[in-house]
Amino acid sequence: MKIIETIEALRQELKPYRNQTIGFVPTMGYLHEGHLSLVRRASQECDIVVMSIFVNPLQFGPNEDLDRYPRDLPRDAALAEQAGVDFLFHPSVEEMYPNPTLTQIVVSKVTEPLCGASRPGHFTGVATVVGKLFHIVMPDRAYFGLKDAQQVAVIQQMVEDLNFPVTIVPCDIVREPDGLAMSSRNVYLSPEERKQAVILSQALFAAKKGLEEGEWSTADEVNRFVREMILTQPLAEIDYVETLAYPSLQPVDELKGQKVIVAVAVRFGKTRLIDNILHAGEE
């Protein structure tokens, strides 16, 4: 595996492989099994795998955890190489943004609910950096985890609207043995917060079962059920619980026959966790 720090060097390295299939896994590092599962899938489906590790300042708000976001390049590089990454792109902020960014990619509608409502500007930062990375790497396929299903919907919309020549491959959420969705932010949880955080997946799995059994007819009923279950844990502070059409992320009146997402964002102490389940909604 080669570690590359400049845009020009990466472009030169990838030149000989343009007639092969290039897979791309963009990350902010502090890798866990969720990221590595994306790499393994990319390795199976592509000839060359590129991973980026870049903590993107554009997608962090003024009071968010940019400075304390966990970073450990030697650890990440070892894990990436083991999983099958061929080129690890690790640019500095100065390399990615040598001048103030006057051009941004703004995706509307799908960015407005869920994390878009509580983190204004977040998805503009995500779309802008992913757009830049797609131009730099020029991958054939790009792999994203569905833990942030809204991010996947935003990237898919951007790719479709702007005709990026890349196939987006959404990949299933990878979970800890007790059900907690894997996240780089899980390291911030105290032992008691970590114990209580399991309620997120428990509530979502129970909601999925209820949806499959036709227990509810409206999104509000699902939201109320999930909210009440999460609030059985005293440290849980809910940001949102929403049931929306997927991937449009628009409100749903009738659950039957709709593909929906039940998505949550909940704080445990200073740590904000997101999780979701998708329900196919066949008749």
What does this structure look like?
The protein is an alpha/beta fold and 283 residues long. It folds into 2 domains: 2-171, HUPs (Rossmann fold, 3-Layer(aba) Sandwich); 184-279, Pantoate--beta-alanine Ligase, Chain: A,domain 2 (2-Layer Sandwich), CATH 3.30.1300.10. Helices cover 36% and strands 20% of the residues. It has helices at 7-14, 33-45, 73-83, 93-96, 115-118, 122-137, 149-162, 191-197, 199-212, 219-230, and strands spanning 2-4, 22-27, 48-53, 87-89, 141-145, 167-171, 236-245, 260-268, 271-279. A hairpin with a 2-residue loop joins strand 8 and strand 9. Helix 6 packs across helix 7 (149-162). The N and C termini lie far apart (48 Å). One of its GO terms (molecular function) is pantoate-beta-alanine ligase activity.
Count of folded domains: 2
Low-pLDDT residue spans: none
Fraction in beta strands: 15-25%
The number of helical elements comes to: 10
Determine the structural class based on helices, strands and strand pairing: alpha/beta
Distance between the termini: 48 Å
Query: What is the CATH topology of the largest domain?
Result: Rossmann fold
Quick check: average pLDDT? 96
Under the CATH scheme, which architecture of the largest domain would be assigned?
Answer: 3-Layer(aba) Sandwich
How would the global form be characterised?
A: globular
* CATH hierarchy class name of the largest domain: Alpha Beta
Radius of gyration: 19 Å
The CATH superfamily name of the largest domain is HUPs
Sheet with most strands: 6 strands, parallel
- Within the largest sheet, what's the order of strands? 1-4-3-2-5-6
- Percent in helix: 25-40%
Tally of extended strands? Answer: 9
Reading the helices and strands in chain order gives EHEHEHEHHHEHEHHHEEE
